Amino acid sequence: MNVDADSRGADRLQEGKVHSMKLRDLAGDQFPELEAQLEGPAGLLDISGLSSDSRNVEPGNAFVAVTGTKADGAGFIADAAGRGAAVAIASQPVDAAIPVLAVKEPRRFLSIAAARFYGRQPETMVAVTGTAGKTSVASFTRQIWAHAGHAAAMIGTTGVVSPTRNEYGALTTPDPVSLHKLLAELADEGVTHASMEASSHGLDQSRLDGVKLSAAAFTNLGRDHMDYHPTVEAYMAAKMRLFDTLLPKGAPAVIFADDPWSPQAVQAAADAGHDVRTVGRKGDYLTLKRVEHFRHKQTAEIHIGDEIFEVDIPLAGDFQVANALVAAGLAMSTGVEPKAAMAALEKLVGASGRLELVGHTKDGALAYVDYAHKPDALENVLNSVRPFTTGRVVVVFGCGGDRDRGKRPIMGEIACRLADVVIVTDDNPRSEEPAAIRAEIMTAAACASEIGDRATAIREAVGMLTSGDTLIVAGKGHEEGQTIGGVTLPFSDHAEVRKALEELKS
Ligand SMILES: CC(=O)N[C@H]1[C@@H](OP(=O)(O)OP(=O)(O)OC[C@H]2O[C@@H](n3ccc(=O)[nH]c3=O)[C@H](O)[C@@H]2O)O[C@H](CO)[C@@H](O)[C@@H]1O[C@H](C)C(=O)N[C@@H](C)C(=O)N[C@H](CCC(=O)O)C(=O)O
Ligand SMILES: Nc1ncnc2c1ncn2[C@@H]1O[C@H](COP(=O)(O)OP(=O)(O)OP(=O)(O)O)[C@@H](O)[C@H]1O
Ligand SMILES: N[C@H](CCC[C@H](N)C(=O)O)C(=O)O
Ligand SMILES: [Mg+2]
């Protein structure tokens, strides 16, 4: 059984015929400013699809002009018309060869219209936001649902995973048109439960506004994307759209209780009238009483009401306990029994490249790949491995080009403070000069050595490991490329670590 937003649209999609809808059905009743405009002939236009990029417009499409960081989509209405667009939707009336309808929030229109056009989604959907842990929580929630017998999927930074798919993805939160096309396909494949990541960009750009959510979650807040959001408060406000705008009133809001920003998230969710469920040491829904850290697992004592569970979570890293609790909170808030959820935690598999053990040297030094590419994450991951490292913590990392420059010295300082050996290298320099990025990290990393070529840096780091050491190669996680200039060359931290370990043995 799947949510059926527009049964006529849905039927046509299922029959595999060319799908089209009247513009007035596409808009629905959520845009009062469109009502008068849709009563005219424009409302009866047959729309064959939606696009916010004029370059992808196909005949009969509605072109939705959105404002980006570089351009105003309204400037491309003529281009869209030239490619056969039937109508354009923009924030203001524009003179053009096709009808142009004005809405206050074109990005919101794009999402709502995409949801109506594709017509359905898995019945139970949840979204998770926060600076770190989204991919892990979305993955763990999918795994818990699957253990409980549901056909479950996840959508996030690492791509789409479902009973029949394992696809590499580009964005953390896909654009609304591809998102709703995907949700309809998943529903058709019988997926009943889906978890997704809500990035701050995605929330700010209304990419999830058409998704019907059964529950939502918040993990934590740290420094990230300061190139996009003007202040940390604005960044938090973008995240809180999940609670104050998107989650239906009264639905469960699962909030990690032990972050400095948790009280603000609880307040936002409570103000919006949600059923707030906190998890963590200070949590009242799932209360973490005790954790024991081992090399490859952690034993957590979790209290749920009057019941006490002792759970072996087969993952390293304190933060994974937090992620596991948030995921269990989401699964239980969507119908999984506590006992089944706790049993599923014992079977969790980490998301690719999240403190993932790739191998070890012959005398037992461990080599991990991790996706920490922001200060808090780097701090967390280095702290997480310290308790089981009897030798040195060695870290290899860099910072992405064309991204927040302010984080570079901050991450340099953290690395030198928390690791014993630091190698600064390249991580997707994009259009920037790689040496200049490294130099900005090095200003606060006097202890570090610098090796630009990432494969060489990894080989050097693996080569110096001795018994009891732990290596963290941070920043790229699951990524499969290195972007230098406009070119992405195949590159995998996993493969390079494995290769270097092999070379040691031969
Ligand atoms: C920084 C950012 O979020 N950019 C988003 C923004 O694009 P933009 O600002 O570059 O757009 P623009 O060039 O100013 O153009 C404005 C509009 O005109 C359109 N256009 C442009 C040229 C043309 O000839 N015709 C035309 O119609 C563009 O398609 C766009 O819709 O608006 C586009 C349309 O909605 C988004 O696809 C695009 O996301 C791009 C793909 C992106 O890379 N975003 C990243 C930063 C992102 O969203 N990351 C998050 C977070 C990841 C994390 O957690 O770390 C994610 O969810 O993945
Ligand atoms: N709960 C957490 N608290 C702090 N750090 C975490 C937490 N979970 C994960 N991390 C760190 O952040 C990295 C990324 O984790 P994950 O991919 O789950 O987060 P994300 O929010 O999806 O990140 P992104 O926004 O980059 O996609 C991990 O490799 C780890 O270093
Ligand atoms: N979604 C994030 C991932 C960053 C990963 C890191 N490897 C980098 O390239 O900075 C971004 O595009 O900002
Ligand atoms: Mg992610």
Question: Could you characterize what this model shows?
Answer:
This protein is α/β, with parallel strands linked by helices. The protein folds into 3 domains: 21-110, MurE/MurF, N-terminal domain (Udp-n-acetylmuramoylalanyl-d-glutamate--2,6- Diaminopimelate Ligase, Chain: A, domain 1); 119-346, Mur-like, catalytic domain (UDP-N-acetylmuramoyl-L-alanine:D-glutamate ligase), CATH 3.40.1190; 356-504, Protein-Tyrosine Phosphatase, Chain A, CATH 3.90.190. 34% of the residues lie in helices and 23% in strands. It has 17 helices and 27 strands. The strands form 6 sheets. It has an 11-stranded mixed sheet with strand order 12-11-10-13-9-14-15-16-17-18-19, with helices on both faces. It has a 6-stranded mixed sheet with strand order 20-21-25-22-23-24, with helices on both faces. The protein has a 4-stranded parallel sheet with strand order 4-5-6-7. Helix 5 packs parallel to helix 7, helix 11 packs antiparallel against helix 12 (338-345) and helix 14 (407-418) packs across helix 15. Bound molecules: ligand UAG, adenosine-5'-triphosphate (ATP), 2,6-diaminopimelic acid and magnesium ion. Magnesium ion (MG) binds at residues 134-135, 156-157, 172, 197.
The outline comes out as globular
Number of domains: 3
The CATH architecture of the largest domain can be given as 3-Layer(aba) Sandwich
**Could you name the CATH topology of the largest domain?**
UDP-N-acetylmuramoyl-L-alanine:D-glutamate ligase
Low-pLDDT regions: 1-17
Helix share, percent: 25-40%
> What's the multimeric state?
single chain
Question: CATH superfamily membership of the largest domain, which one?
Answer: Mur-like, catalytic domain
N-C termini distance:
56 Å
Q: Which structural category do the helix and sheet elements fall into?
A: alpha/beta
